[in-house]
Design brief:
Blueprint (H helix, E strand, L loop, with lengths): L8 H16 L5 E4 L3 H16 L6 E4 L2 H9 L13 E6 L3 E2 L5 E2 L6 H9 L1 E9 L13 E5 L4 H9 L8 E6 L22 E7 L6 H9 L4 E4 L1 E2 L5 E6 L2 E3 L1
Parallel strand pairs: 1-2, 1-3, 3-6, 6-12
Antiparallel strand pairs: 4-5, 5-11, 7-9, 7-10, 8-9, 12-13
Helix pairs in contact: 1-2
Enzyme class: isomerase
Catalytic activity: aldehydo-D-ribose 5-phosphate = D-ribulose 5-phosphate
Protein name: ribose-5-phosphate isomerase
Length: 246
């Protein structure tokens, strides 16, 4: 366990981002690059190791336009799922992690691309700081749901009425301003990299059955995808005040 006493949240994020790359990436791999403040440190590390020659013949698939720009600046070779439908390892953060390793993701608005990349990954390494760990999904972080712009108010109502959602829901809020944060930072409706809207579901209590909520959301016409990542993480690397642990 690496010591992490007295480190800032950013320094903790850097520790887990670097560890994920150091432990799991080998030359010749196809790698999924996540999105968000923690994943950005992993992307930096990939760039460093390619530049030093420690890693060779790696090709990466970014999960957002933001990550793509960062990777291009670092000289990381990129492709898309069109070229490679099988990924050796993906590294990404999460907004919440429950004891069963179910995740809430999408605070940064990239949930659809993240899920498309991570679902076809041999290994999905989730990197978080201790503040993201929770006893159950729901109250700690709003659940993002990506929906079509067409009749979005209707879709929001349908989502809010789902039986696995409704009893625990406080409110459903359309994301405004930048799609990359769930804080209202503008007056226009936030648009994802895919041209869709996001509704953030704020819960007053823990979702009793997160897999059921995931299934009901996915089966709702008008919902493109949602931020519940159920049973997808291979490993969770956590940085806390007592150190970094898996």
């Amino acid at each position: 366990m690496a010591s992490a006493a007295g480190l800032s949240q950013d320094e903790l994020k850097k520790l887990v981002g670097y560890k994920a790359v150091d432990d799991h990436l080998r030359s010749g791999m196809v790698v999924g690059l996540g999105t968000g403040s923690t994943a950005a440190f992993a992307v930096d590390r990939v760039g460093q190791k390619l530049k030093s020659g420690e890693l060779k013949d790696i090709i990466c698939i970014p999960t957002s336009e933001r990550t793509k720009e960062q990777a291009e600046k670092l000289g990381i070779p990129l492709c898309t799922l069109n070229e490679k439908s099988h990924i050796d390892v993906s590294i990404d953060g999460a907004d919440e992690v429950d004891p069963d390793w179910n995740l809430v993701k999408g605070g940064g608005g990239a949930l659809l691309r993240e899920k498309m990349v991570e679902i076809v990954s041999e290994k999905f390494i989730c990197i978080v700081d201790e503040s993201k760990l929770c006893k159950g999904l729901g109250p700690g972080f709003p659940l993002p749901v990506e929906i079509t712009p067409f009749c979005h108010e209707h879709t929001m109502r349908v989502v809010a009425s789902l039986s696995a959602i409704k009893p625990y829901l406080k409110e459903a809020v359309l994301r405004m301003g930048s799609s990359s944060t769930n804080k209202r930072d503008g007056d226009n409706i936030a648009v994802t990299d895919n041209g869709n809207y996001i509704v953030d579901l704020h819960f007053k209590e823990t979702l009793k059955d997160a897999p059921a909520a995931a299934a009901q959301l996915k089966n709702t016409v008008g919902v493109v995808d949602h931020g519940l990542f159920i049973g997808m993480a291979t490993e969770v690397i956590v940085a806390g005040k007592d150190g970094v642990y898996v």
